[in-house]
Amino acid sequence: MRALQGARLEPAGLADDRYATGRGHYSGKPGTGRAVTLIEAEVVESVGLSPGESRRNVTTRGVALNELVGRRFRLGGAVCEGKRLCQPCAYLEGLTQKKILFSLAGRGGLRADVLQAGEIRVGDALSPLPARSIVEDDVPAIAALNNAHPAEIGLVDEPKLRQLLAAAALATALGPPGDPDAFLIALDERVPVQGPNHAWFLARGGRFLYVDRVCVHPRARRRGLARALYEDAFACAAGRTVCCEVNSDPPNPGSDAFHAALGFREVGRAFLADRGKSVRYLER
Description:
This protein is an alpha+beta fold.
C-alpha cells in the first residue's frame, strides 16, 4: 500500500490498483463491492493502525460509513454506491501483527461500487446522495406508476422498462424498494437511440444526461421528490448538460414552471407525429 494525494476512480476500481487491473485475489470471482474500499480514520486510530495498514483504498473522517450500505454517494468527482460492510479478516491481523480482528468487527469499513468515474483527492468531500438505485423489485411498481401517466411520459411494459434500465446512465428512486414514491431514468450520448427525443439530443451532439422520464406517485406529491431526483441528476452529471423534453401541445404548464425554476432553458421544439403531440426541448 502507498499513500496518494489523488487518483482516478473507475468502475473497475482505483486506477492502477490490483483489482482495477484484474490482479486482485478475488478478481476472478463475480460480485459487487470490490471496486473501492473505505474505512473511517477514527476507527483506524482507535485500534492503533496507520491508514495504509488498514488495507483500504480510502480513509475518511467524520463520515458514518456503515450508514452508506445500499446508498449512493459522491466522493470527489466520482459517484459510488455502498454495497456491504468490509469485515476484517485473519489475513489483515497477520499482516499487521496486531490483535485487531474483534476490535474491527462491524467497523472494518465499506465496500462500494463505482457508478460514475471521477478524480478524487485528499480533502475531497464525501456526500450522500438522496436517491437510491432502481432495483429489480421496483420494476412492477415503476411500470404501473409510469403507465398511470401515458400522456406525459408514454406507456411502457415491464420487458421494455428492463431494456430501458439496462441502457440508462442513471436510474434512481426514492422510497422503499418494491414500492418507490418516485423514480427518474436518464440516458446519455453513449447508448444507441432510445426514442425520438433521445435521438434529437444525439443529433445535436455533445455530452449530455437526458432525463427520459421522471414520475412521482400521487401519495408523495408536494414533498419535493421530483426536485430531489433532479438535484441528484445534476450532481451525477459531472460537467455534462442535463436535458429533457416537456409537452407543449397538449400543454403542461406545471412542468414548464417546475423546469424553469430549476434553471432549464428551451433549446428546440419538435412535433412527434407518431405520438400526436409537440414538445419543447430543454437543457441546463
